[in-house]
Each structure stands twice: as C-alpha cells, then as structure tokens.
Design a protein that fits this description.
The structure holds two protein chains of two kinds. Helix content of chain A is about 35%, strand content about 30%. By secondary structure, chain A is of the alpha/beta class. Chain A has a single domain, classed as Rossmann fold (3-Layer(aba) Sandwich). By secondary structure, chain B is an alpha+beta fold. The chains are: A alpha/beta, B alpha+beta.
C-alpha cells in the first residue's frame, strides 16, 4: 500500500492557468522517488500539494489512504511529511541543534553527528555554516521528525558536485535505514539516478514511474 | 520546541530588533504612566479642593410679594417682610441633615455698640449720639470663621478663637482696637446699643488683623474697619427679643460640591421647611472657580492619554508589521515544519510580551523622574504627581492587550497566506 498518493490532482492559479492536470502518482515507504521536468512544469507545486503547503484545485492527496484535508494540512505537515528545501530554509537566529529541535523532542546532537556535523558546529549559528552543513542540518531536521515522507525540493541545487553527491547518498541511506519515503524534485541527473522511480512532469501532466 | 522558547531565543539573538521594540515600549509606558499620574494628581487635587471649599446652599426668606404693607414710624414708612423666618428650630433640623458639615448666618452691621468701658479709634467727626459716645458696627454671626472677610483671607484670626454656634456674649475685635484699648483675649467689654437701649457685656473670644491701613479719612467711627467686629447671634436674639425672631439668611456648607444638589433636596424635604416662605439656592461658584483649572487639566490629560494610546497602538502595529514582514521566510519555514498559525502568532506575541515585561519595569524609574519633572512644571497647579505601585497591574494588562491587538493586526496578512505562497515569495 502506498504511503502517499496524488489522485487526479489538478492545480491552477486563479482558476485559469492550469499548472497540474489530472496528476496521479503513488509513493511507497522505503523508496526514493525523483520528479523531474523543465522549469515551470509544476514540480515544486506538486511537491507543495503532496506536503500540504497548499490545497489542490482538483483531486485528492491521500496519506495512508486518507485525504489529508480531513485532518487538516497543518496536521499533515506536522505529522506526516518533512521538507528539505534548495535554500535550506533554516531559522537564521538558531543553531543547527535548535533547528532540528523545531520538529523533534529527541536530542538533536546524535542525528547531526550522524550527518557529519561536530558538536561544536551544531551549537554554532546556522548562518556561520557552509552550504553543505546547512543542507545537512535541514536533512537532520527532516529525519528527526517522525514523518514517514521526506519531500526534498532541489536539495542539491545550491551545492557543489561533491557535496551534492554526499547529500544524495545521505537521502538514499535515510530511505533505506529509516524506511522513509523520499520524494525529490530535481533537475540533477545524478540525483535522479539514485531514485527507485522517476516521474517526469511536462505540460502539467505526469509520466513515468519506473526507475 | 515551544513557542515561548522560540520567542526567548528570538529576543536574545535578534538584539537590534528587540532593542528597538524595547525602547518603543519603554517610551510608550513612560508617557502613559506619567500622563495617568498627572491625571490622578489633578483628580486628587480637585478632590482636595472639593473638601476644602465644599459646596454651599443658601437659605433665605422669599420676599417676592411678601413685603406687606408699610408701617409708619419716626423715620418714615417701613416695609417689612411678613413671611416666615429662619428659626433656630429650622437651623437645628438642617444641621442634622446628612451631608451638611457646617452652617452660618452672617448679618453685617446687625448690631451697633458704643464702647462703655473702651474707646474706638477716632474718626473725623465725633457725633456721640449715645450716652457712651459714638457706636460702631458689628456683624452678627453663628460661625465667624465662615464669614466672608475670613473666608477671603482679608481678615485673619491672630489670637483666641472664632465665634461658633452656641456662643453667647462673645465678640471678635480687631488687633488695632485691642491694642488701642490694651485689650486681649478673655477680657470683657461692655457695649451700649441704642436700638435695644441696653448695655451688654461681651467676652473677647478672638482678635483678628487685616484692618491695618484701611481707615483712610473716615468721617464716623463705624467707617473705620478696625472699629468694626463680630458678635454671636445668640446675644442678638437675647437683646432684641421679639424684634428679631429669626436669621436673615443661612449659608449651609456641604462637604462635596458634587453632592450639593442631593443635600439641597434633602433640606427642602424637611418638615420644618414644608410650606414655609423660604427659598433654597445652590451655590458652587467658589468651588467652580477654584476647580475649573484642575478640571480643565484633567480633561486635557484624558485627551492626551487617549491620543498617546492611539498613537502607541499605531506605532506598535507599524513596528510589528515591519518586523513580521521581515520574518516572512521564518514564518514560512515554521508553517512548513507543521507549526500552526496560532502557534506562530503566539510566538510573535510572546516575543513582544517578554520585551514588554522588561520595558514596562524599566519604565517605572523613568516615569518617576518624568512625573517629578511634570510636577515641577505644574507647580502652579500645586499637583503632587506620583507614580503609584497600583499603576503597574493595569499597565501590564492594558499593555499586553495592546500588544496582542498589534500582533494580530500586524501578522494578519502573513498568517492568512498559505505556506506555499509565503515560500514561493521567499524564493
């Protein structure tokens, strides 16, 4: 059974410009999915709808078979999904440990150490860390939550090649070890290459679904 | 992480923003506390004036249409009032009315007495129309302290005491007259009244000054203020018997001018006054004159407080709006990690509230200083401008309500957006 599913999802701005048309896709736990496509094709919009950042104008988003709008989008965001953004989206006046603590009551330092941040770095202001360290913090924040689905929007877009590969590996390991469903929106063929299944979005419609 | 911890972290780490909000809240609190202190000082001063001056009710014969027919005597035709008089029974009943603190009847030049065993300061002419020489005028009174000359400060008692209700055969004389005759408080003087054709003895109850230099070129002794004094009303009744069966007027003093009309109504309802041809009128002129500047100040300060409140609300909302707009990204992140909108608004409120708790406390010593300066500036109004401890609780309650309203107003637009909108605008 899929953990997350988009069923006949449509989305348009102001009811006119259709971004997504009748998109259906199912995602399972323990697997990595990549969604690719040209700029402006609606990848990030689909990820936002899957994550409950907005509501589709048509169709449903189901989590474990239940429409996420039933319990509310805030409940879905808090309990079912975790985001990783291209621009990291860390709270700039907090340390990595405090950013991780935003989503979890568990001690943040072990998970940050597991992702390569030292204790000293974990207590430093996030703005004083490198891009890679900030993205690791964002991943740690996503992993620390109990969410079954991790939604990553261009997670390596701002990183150099080596760091991007490291981050991709971390995400893959996370899916395997934590049995989480990882959905990555990416332009990167390398990142798409680690996915178990790849979806293409073009003209508001979705294609593919095989690795 | 709880919203309080996030708020505390923000306040500690974002020092510039916190300092700006701290200073703004401190200035608002200082203005409000000082304005409230001035308002209360003016209110207290007005209450003091109210107690000191009091209200007055005047009871007097209603002469309208009651002057009767003319009576012929040796001086010609005299038209006398033929209505009811203010009797002692009425005075006693009025003195028991709730709210009445004092009363007085003052009848200027009611008694003319020639000095039997003392002499008046001489005038230009010595008419000597009595066996004891020329007579001078005395004001008959129940309570000399309430007489116009003493109330206005023109005369001041320098020795002895005032004439009070119940006194008999007592008088007040001027210091000049006392010195002229070597008299002092406790001495007795005898006076002859041509009107009653009798000699009466009076004990000098008090000596007053304020007549000095007012003699001018007096033609008769009674034109010299120093020769004029005060005697008790009881002796007047004794001397003139049936010729004088009541008081000419009665001034009734009420503690609080605000309640003067109620007291007046209670007096009017007395059975002793029912059907009597006497009229009551309320007189708060003295209080109104004294309290007008204080009430004007109170009104101005109230308007100032309202303006400060409105301007503070506007400034606070503007400041917090700028702050919230600068934190759209943070709000988007918090929404994306599952924080509810209420949780985010609570964080924004907690940040401002934490800052307010400290800034309001810091405002107290500054307000004490400002209140002192305001008190010095308003020295003419004789105000005691003080910051009371009782101001703190309302300050915190009103301040926090103001902050809550400003936080809701400032965060409304952002919180009403979807997280996707916010994050899209961010990127």
């Amino acid at each position: 059974m899929s953990i997350l599913e988009a069923r006949n999802v449509a989305y348009s701005y102001d009811g006119r410009r259709a971004v997504l048309k009748n998109v259906s896709a199912a995602f399972e736990a323990g697997r990595i999915y990549a969604i690719t496509g040209p700029s402006g094709c609606g990848k990030t919009t689909l990820l936002s709808l899957l994550g409950g950042l907005d509501s589709p104008t048509g169709g449903q988003i189901l989590f474990e078979g239940e429409d996420i709008s039933k319990k509310g989008l805030a409940f879905h965001r808090k309990n079912n999904v975790a985001f990783i953004f291209q621009s990291y989206n860390l709270i700039d006046y907090m340390t990595p440990a405090e950013n991780v603590a935003l989503t979890s009551k568990r001690p943040p330092l072990p998970i940050l150490e597991r992702l390569g941040l030292t204790r000293e770095e974990s207590k430093r202001n996030v703005m004083r860390l490198s891009g890679g360290q900030q993205q690791r913090t964002a991943i740690a924040r996503a992993l620390a939550s109990d969410a079954g689905v991790i939604l990553a929007d261009e997670p390596t877009g701002n990183l150099d090649g080596d760091t991007a590969a490291e981050i991709a590996a971390v995400l893959k390991e996370c899916a395997r070890r934590s049995n989480k469903c990882v959905i990555i929106v990416t332009h990167s063929e390398e990142v798409a290459g680690i996915a178990d299944e790849v979806f293409w979005l073009r003209g508001g419609e979705i294609y593919g679904g095989e690795g | 992480m709880s919203f309080i911890k996030r708020a505390a972290l923000y306040c500690i780490r974002q020092r510039l923003g916190t300092a700006v909000l701290f200073l703004t809240l401190t200035v608002i609190a200082v203005f409000l506390l000082t304005a409230v202190a001035i308002r209360d000082a003016a209110k207290s001063a007005a209450a003091g004036v109210r107690t000191a001056v009091g209200g007055k009710i005047l009871l007097e014969p209603d002469t309208e249409g009651r002057m009767g027919g003319g009576v012929q005597n040796q001086w010609g035709t005299v038209y006398g009032y033929n209505g009811d008089l203010i009797t002692q029974e009425i005075v006693n009943a009025i003195s028991d009315v709730d709210g009445v603190v004092d009363y007085n009847s003052e009848d200027a030049a009611a008694y003319y007495g020639a000095g039997v065993d003392f002499k008046y300061l001489p005038a230009a002419f010595d008419l000597s129309y009595t066996p004891y020489g020329e007579a001078s005028a005395y004001t008959a009174t129940l309570s000399s302290e309430k007489c116009a000359a003493f109330q206005s400060g023109k005369y001041k008692l320098t020795a002895g005491r005032h004439i009070v209700p119940g006194d008999r055969h007592v008088c007040l004389i001027s210091k000049e007259l006392a010195d002229y005759n070597g008299l002092s408080v406790g001495d007795s003087v005898k006076m002859y009244s041509l009107d009653s054709d009798s000699v009466a003895e009076f004990e000098i109850a008090g000596i007053f000054d304020g007549t000095e230099g007012a003699s001018g070129n007096a033609l008769t002794v009674d034109e010299i203020p120093a020769n004029c004094g005060y005697i008790d009303y009881a002796t007047m009744f004794e001397l003139f018997k049936e010729e004088l069966s009541g008081y000419q007027q009665l001034t009734i003093y009420v503690r609080n001018p605000d309640g003067v009309q109620n007291v007046c109504d209670r007096i009017a309802a007395l059975p002793e006054l029912k059907g009597k041809t006497l009229k009551l009128s309320v007189d708060t002129e003295e209080y109104d004159v004294v309290s007008a500047p204080l009430e004007s100040l109170q009104k101005s300060v109230k308007i100032t407080i309202a303006i400060i409140f409105a301007v503070s609300a506007a400034i606070l909302t503007l400041l917090l709006t700028i702050r919230v707009r600068g934190r759209k990204r943070e709000i988007g992140i918090l929404l994306s990690v599952g924080m509810s909108k209420a949780d985010i608004v609570l964080q924004l409120f907690a940040e401002a509230a934490l800052t307010a708790v400290i800034s309001f406390a810091a405002a107290v010593p500054l307000s004490i200083f400002a209140a002192k300066k305001a008190g010095d500036y308003l020295t003419a109004a004789n105000l005691n401008v003080q910051i009371n401890a009782s101001y703190l609780l309302p300050l915190y309650i009103i301040g926090l309500l103001l902050i809550a309203a400003a936080v809701i107003a400032s965060s409304w637009a952002v919180v009403c957006s979807t997280p996707k909108d916010i994050l899209e605008k961010m990127s």
